[in-house]
Amino acid sequence: MDLAEKFIIKGGTPLKGEVSIGGAKNSVLKLMAAALLAKSTTKIYNVPALTDVEIMLSVIAQLGVKTSYDRQEKSITINAEDITNISAKYDLVSKMRASFIVLGALVGRCKEAIVALPGGCAIGERRVDFHIKGLEALGAKIKIENGYVHAKASKLVGADIYLDIPSVGATENLMLAAVLAEGSTRIQNAAQEPEIIDLANFLNTMGADVSGAGTSEIVINGVRESDLHGIEYTTIPDRIEAGTFMTAIVATRGKAVLRNVHPAHLTFFNDKLIKMGANIKLLEPNSLEVNCRNRLESINFVTQPYPGFPTDLQSMAMVLLSTANGVGIITESLYENRFMQVPELRRMGADIHQDRNHAIIKGVKKLTPATLSASDLRAGASLVVASLMSEGVSVIENLHHIDRGYENFENKLKLLGGKIERQLDATLSTEETRNEFYI
């Protein structure tokens, strides 16, 4: 992949039509790790074509597990009959934080794992203390040296584990480790995200005994390795991708239908959009119609663990507030460095004052186009939306961040009438790019 790839976007066109939302990135990566628990073959459907999925496939293949990826069918087959290597190397894990989830699966099945400390988007400190303490409570001995977590246990025994914060990653890692532990494990103050429920459903279909997913207390009754078997399973839709497209439709004052969504996963976000002046209508159980004709009204946002307002849609909220009527305040309560889109939005004329974890946004009449740089996945996607709502041609660089989490992003936007192109020729300058497209 050429890191000099750019999006060239001509904004000012309302998005109209319909678009289908893909499988949830934050779910499928964990399901792939969970497939390691069964000594058989598992097939996962509704898999989005993302660089993060490619990385996770490489992590799993590195363990000696056989994998195949059918991009046309959007499915992945994982044959975990044999795990010949218990080490997940730095060169892969450092690229994507979610791959750290193999730690729990490997300790659960192999009773030993050597996994590099994770990487991912630079949105703030996301320590692994809760993962480590939880695994130690289950009986694992942990050493951290040379950038690797080395976990080993003669056997794992169920325990009561309280998480100081409802960490999604820690909840998932401990669920995987506890499936084959002796006795019962209770995770208190567990994360409640839909992706946690999806993982629990996957594990139960495989033969595990998990209850309480979606609440603050999850109970995992350990089963024998022979109780687990391969399955076929379909990933839930991606609620963050859905929220991104809803934002783009509202921001451009368009009208469009979203297919393959779970509206219940978007309740809090929908409520906020409606309070700002958008119209959202349930057409079918898995379809929403979204439209907005008038200027939005400013409101306040506070990011919270699910079912509160998701931090992954905070940058989208900021884009909407940037041209809304009045003043809105966003409080980012989860990550200390997740306002990385602010300098770029200011370059487009947004009036944003940042005070630590608060952003005060005074709506301006319109944003102006600019050359922009994506700093991370969600910030990058918000710049795409901001460019679509401005009048003129914007250029967005560092697309590799965006490609981590959005499948066929530009093609889906084109289906809605968005004027967006991916430039593959790195030899053109930014000004030549502007002239090359949308003259």
Secondary structural class: alpha/beta
Radius of gyration: 22 Å
Total number of domains: 2
Instruction: Identify the CATH homologous superfamily of the largest domain.
Output: Enolpyruvate transferase domain
What distance separates the N and C termini?
A: 27 Å
The largest β sheet comes out as: 4 strands, mixed
CATH class of the largest domain: Alpha Beta
Shape descriptor reads: globular
- CATH topology term of the largest domain: UDP-n-acetylglucosamine1-carboxyvinyl-transferase, Chain
Number of helix segments?
15
Low-confidence stretches: 120-126
Strand content: 15-25%
Question: Portion of residues in helices?
Answer: 25-40%
Number of beta strands: 24
**Whole-number average pLDDT?**
93
Record the strand order, biggest sheet.
Answer: 22-23-1-24
At CATH level 2, the architecture of the largest domain is Alpha-beta prism
Characterize the structure shown.
The chain is an alpha/beta fold. Helices cover 31% and strands 25% of the residues. It folds into 2 domains: 6-22 and 237-436, Enolpyruvate transferase domain (UDP-n-acetylglucosamine1-carboxyvinyl-transferase, Chain); 25-234, Alpha-beta prism (UDP-n-acetylglucosamine1-carboxyvinyl-transferase, Chain), CATH 3.65.10. The strands form 6 sheets. Strands 22-23-1-24 form a 4-stranded mixed beta sheet, with helices on both faces. It has a 4-stranded mixed beta sheet with strand order 2-15-17-16. Helix 1 runs parallel beside helix 2 (51-62) and helix 8 (239-251) packs parallel to helix 10. The radius of gyration is 22 Å and the shape is globular.
